Amino acid sequence: MIAAAVVVTTLGVGVSVVTQVTAQTRVDPATGAAIPGATRIPPVLTRVPPPITTVPPRPRGRVDWQGAVGGLRQSGGSSESLATNLDKAEVDATKVPILLPNDPKIMAGARIYSFGDYYTITADAPGAGISLSGTTAIIPLPATKPLKIDPVGPEGLTVQRTVDGQLASFTRYGVLYTVEVRCEKAGDLRCADDNYVLGLVGKTTTVVLGAAARAEAGLGG
Asked: pLDDT tens, 27-40?
């Protein structure tokens, strides 16, 4: 004799698993009556999906749009000339002020990748690679590697030695910007100390605002 039952197992608040269990009852072949105590319920294994976890987003700062618009006006025609070779669609999708180095040679072959409130620009130099980025995310300083905090220069200017170069970061208009230099050869003087990367930071002053950033600043598209 076979009987079916439904077992409801509660796993947590508002979460239940419904399992159909088939019970098998032994019957006396002589009389056809069920044998007392001989009912066997096979074990049922129910796979419970793992809980869904979400990663909280990083806190983000506010952009000083008034200051950024002022920087755009100070940049004058440099904004358009330096950004000529950048993908306009990527520029327009960027919601933060883009900072470019006032160096036409570096910007000649530069490429930009936008992620809305974060962007990165890569450029090639003879024997080296250059990366520039900007984000409104608040990122804690790494504690495992020594940092050089420079009291002179942009707000929060720090320089860090990397495996193959130098990385500088600073804050402007409420945005965290980074300038990184990576050298192909270990003895390259551009990566041996922070003079070259600090020189790049000093030249990274040209402000570019794409359509999304202009909308955020109240300037229209």
From this structure: 566 666 666 655 55
